[in-house]
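DM from R.C. (forwarded with permission)

"hey, sorry to bug you on a friday — could you get me a structure for this? deadline for the figure draft is monday and I only need the backbone to look sensible"
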Amino acid sequence: MIVWAMMMSLLGLSCHTHGFLIRDLPLSRSDCMDIFVKINHIQEKRNNKMDTMARYTRAFKSGVISRWRFHNKRESWLLTERRLRTEAAHLYDIGYEHGCFDENK
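My reply, with the result:
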């Protein structure tokens, strides 16, 4: 897999998958650290979006916002959460596949 990724990189070809390019696959500890930073950034976004959605839920339950507005906010949040969760899972998969979470490396 790594040999294939290096060959693709040398040829100037890339495959775009969930915002991650083949040439960006982790080949060193520094590359793995970049993955950790990206995962952390995504998780912070998810937490912020979840906090915002919790405020909308409280506002809806207390009658401050309409069912229609709450439904629209919830649908938007669900789409964003699904996308961010998928991005984080993809980065975790890459990290595990390339030994970024192996303490012995």
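R.C.: lifesaver. The radius of gyration is 19 Å.
me: no worries. The longest helix spans residues 29-61.
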